[in-house]
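User: Hey, my collaborator sent me this sequence without any context and asked if I could get a structure. I don't really work with proteins. Can you help?
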Amino acid sequence: MHSFSTPSLRKDMSPPRRAAAAREFAAGIAILKQLGHHADAVRAFLAAGQVLHALELAQEQDLLRQFAPGEFLELAYASRNRTLFLTVYKLFEERGLLSIGDAEDFPHSDEGVGGTAKYFSIYREFWEESLMMEAV
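Assistant: No problem. I've predicted the 3D structure and written it out in structure-token form, which is a compact way to encode the shape of the chain:
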């Protein structure tokens, strides 16, 4: 695994410094991809809070099974963007990577039942009304 630094794109940074940090981050991602270290690039995107970029790259490179769904779901939830959370949740659900079953369903993580149940509860909380309307 490679180490990388996450750009600090705070609002109190000057616009030129923010732009420079973003360029440096993009260059680092490009280098990781060029070297074939796609999983490290996904981790960098996650560390930077860029859930959709991380998800897109993980899908392109067939890496989703290498990551615990909670790594993506926690960031999506923290964003307070319900649509983002739904998108991430549904992607993992449709690929059979979410389960409210046994911890054995998660050979790649220590997430187990508790972690999955947490996100299932959040999903229901966010979308309960819509789910009930679909059933009608």
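In plain terms: Residues 73 and 88 are 6 Å apart (CA to CA). You can pass these tokens on to your collaborator as they are.
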